[in-house]
Amino acid sequence: MTYYNNDTIIYQNGAYVKAADAKIDLYSQSMHYGYSVFEGIRSYKSISGDTKIFKEKEHFERLKNSALAINMPFTFDTNELIQATYEVLRLNNLSDAYIRPLVYAPSNMTYALNTESFIVIQTWAMQPFLGDRLLRIMKSSFQRPNPKGFKIHAKAGGHYVNSIIASQDAKMNGYDEALLEDMDGYIAEGPGANVFLEKNNKISTPSLGNILPGITRSTVLEICEDFGIPVEEKKITESDLKKADNAFFCGTAVEVIGWQSIDDVVFPNPWEKSISYIIEKAYKSLVRIDIPEYEAQRKAYLNKK
Ligand code: PMP
């Protein structure tokens, strides 16, 4: 995957610069210790033809909260960052894009606090993240980081070493992606996505506490509320999952993506017949601000009930 070429522009500390010319300090605490925070955001071409960043306020607020959670100074104005992101998209002629803001630290080889942070906003054209077929998932032997040892609600660079090794392990074993438990042995989340399951026409998802509070997870809960789909946040076990009718991952990059199997146990309900599939389609309408389609989907679901 090529993320940039000689023409690509990024935003770096108040300026629009060529990605190929941009520099970071190799003595940065972020480089050596993973002490950084970032966001994963999507923009879409809406049905009106405009480029619209999905839930931009929520993402930039989470960026700020992630920084503050790990004591990184955050002196940036989130509204200005949103404007800068639209400008980067425009300069790169992008509409359906992935957006990556990253807050990083100055040179510092100690563990001491810094007095300033830096920021970069990168964008690139979006491609399907995990593909677009149903996923074969492996329950990982790696657990998510212990919330007593990490600020698990923060999207901090160093946390993603856990995601990388778990995901690589699943792929080396012939699966599409990993699913991780929390430190208590309950189902937590994927390396970069939250998880939902469907059983007897009801949806459930792990409660907050040991997972990243996903913005897509909140959107799925909102869709369930709008459509009147029964949904519960609770502790979920491996056996609950293996007895489920369907399951899916959700996240900004993966959107809503169904599973074929977990550890080769195939979900019995065909994806296209599931409520989860209705949620997938509703999500696709929301991100493109296709409110008439969203309303039509909602009415169709209510009529079928
Ligand atoms: N969990 C983890 C560990 C993630 O990295 C992500 C992606 N940011 C998610 C869940 C989903 O979060 P969101 O819906 O906000 O993208």
Descriptive labels:
about 30% helix; globular; about 300 residues; D-amino Acid Aminotransferase, Chain A, domain 1; alpha+beta; binds 4'-deoxy-4'-aminopyridoxal-5'-phosphate; seven-stranded antiparallel beta sheet; 16 strands; D-amino Acid Aminotransferase, Chain A, domain 2; nine-stranded mixed beta sheet; single chain
Helix content: 25-40%
Distance between the termini: 43 Å
Structural class: alpha+beta
Please, what is the average pLDDT? 97
* CATH class descriptor name of the largest domain: Alpha Beta
Ligand set: 4'-deoxy-4'-aminopyridoxal-5'-phosphate
Number of strands: 16
Please provide a written account of the structure.
The protein has 305 residues and is an alpha+beta fold. It has 2 domains: 9-125, 2-Layer Sandwich (D-amino Acid Aminotransferase, Chain A, domain 1), CATH 3.30.470.10; 135-304, D-amino Acid Aminotransferase, Chain A, domain 2 (Alpha-Beta Barrel). It contains 8 helices and 16 strands. The protein has helices at 29-33, 56-69, 78-91, 160-172, 215-227, 238-242, 275-287, 291-304; strands at 9-12, 15-18, 37-38, 41-45, 51-53, 97-104, 118-125, 135-143, 177-181, 187-189, 194-199, 202-206, 231-234, 246-251, 255-262, 265-266. The strands form 2 sheets. Strands 8, 9, 10, 11, 12, 13, 14, 15 and 16 form a 9-stranded mixed beta sheet that branches. Strands 1, 2, 3, 4, 5, 6 and 7 form a 7-stranded antiparallel beta sheet that branches. The longest helix has 14 residues, at 56-69. The N and C termini lie far apart (43 Å). Residues 40, 163, 189, 192-194, 212, 214-217, 251-252 line the site of 4'-deoxy-4'-aminopyridoxal-5'-phosphate.
